[in-house]
Design a protein that fits this description.
Elements (H helix, E strand, L loop, with lengths): L1 H9 L11 E3 L4 H13 L6 E3 L7 E6 L5 E7 L4 E8 L2 H28 L8 H8 L2 H32 L2 E3 L8
Antiparallel strand pairs: 1-5, 1-6, 2-3, 3-4, 4-5
């Protein structure tokens, strides 16, 4: 299961570039950074990290539900701000570990409870408990990943609007920004 978890987390690919909006601004990169830093210090862009990861201009973290995400901004050749989102990998990894580790204690607890309350119960509990819990664990994990990606994408669109307002830019749908 750990290889599947690692593969899925590393597959936490960015949302397609034309899916996220683009901010068109004539402000220099230095001014963009200073305006966003000022907004972050006033609490309007919490989680802002300037010159973030992987040659990014900036990144904004700590949004999304149930797992947190990161909005990464880069300046393209047309001087537009292009964005991508990613999930932070620690949340999904911990959730997968908890799902795996919770199966066996649940089996022991269920077995002891059934034997206490029903004196006639003598079926080996693992016969039915494991087939019910083990196959559903990956579905629960995938569902949480899917919900997180949708939440991160939705919140990213809101944050892109805030970034555009702070730098005096125009928000364009991702596909429109390429025809300049």
């Amino acid at each position: 299961m750990s290889q599947a978890v690692t593969a899925e987390i590393s597959r936490s690919e960015p949302v397609q570039s034309d899916a996220l909006s683009v901010v068109r601004t004539s402000v220099s990169t230095q001014e963009v950074c200073s305006k966003l830093d000022a907004a972050a210090s006033r609490g309007r862009l919490p989680g802002l990290v300037l010159n973030g990861r992987q040659s990014a201009l900036f990144s904004i973290t700590d949004f999304g539900h149930p797992f947190e995400g990161v909005l990464i901004a880069r300046r393209d050749s047309l001087n537009d701000l292009r964005f991508e989102t990613r999930l932070k990998p620690i949340g999904p990894a911990l959730f997968a570990i908890v799902l795996v580790l919770a199966v066996w204690p649940g089996l022991l607890l269920t077995d002891s409870m059934l034997r206490v309350y029903f004196s006639w119960y003598d079926i080996p509990t693992w016969w039915w408990y494991l087939p019910l819990t083990v196959p559903s664990s990956p579905w629960a994990w995938r569902s949480a990943i899917r919900k997180s990606r949708e939440s991160v994408h939705q919140r990213a669109q809101e944050l892109i609007g805030k970034v555009a307002a702070e730098v005096g830019g125009t928000v364009l749908p991702g596909g429109e920004a390429q025809s300049r």
